[in-house]
Design brief:
The chain is an all-alpha fold and 159 residues long. It contains five helices and no strands. The structure holds fe (ii) ion (2 copies).
Length: 159
Amino acid sequence: MEDDGLTRLNGEIHERLDEALLEIMERLTELDIAAAHTRWGAVRESLLAHRACEDGGVHQRYAELGERPRGAAPELFLTDHVTLERLAGVCEEVIVALGSPSSPLRRQVVLALPHFYRLRNLLEHHTLREQRFFYPALDEHLSDEERAGFIEELAATAL
Ligand SMILES: [Fe+2]
Ligand SMILES: [Fe+2]
């Protein structure tokens, strides 16, 4: 039977990130900025680690697989990561600014939430791309040993 270990693990990691983003937004709606900030720190760290892992050996191995279907060209995954990092940078700035609000906090939170939805939407789009193309191709073509090595690397990036 085909081993879908990488696809499954990546799906779980992305699911946890998505859940954590929702929790952050819940804390924000409670105006608990400190709790939102703490949770955000963990999300940011996991996102950065996950990206570093995927942009490294995993991506190189994917690129080596050769011709890919439309919507699955290797550079598209890197582009998604750049955009995700840009949106995460905005969320970081926003959450830091909420720590010392210059106007009524509730209004600022309302204005801040769309940035987190944007990040969440892009993550969802990127998750689909990875779950449909990137990891199934790797699961299919890698040797058991290579797959196990990447699974270990990837697991270390989980939230
Ligand atoms: Fe991923
Ligand atoms: Fe990714």
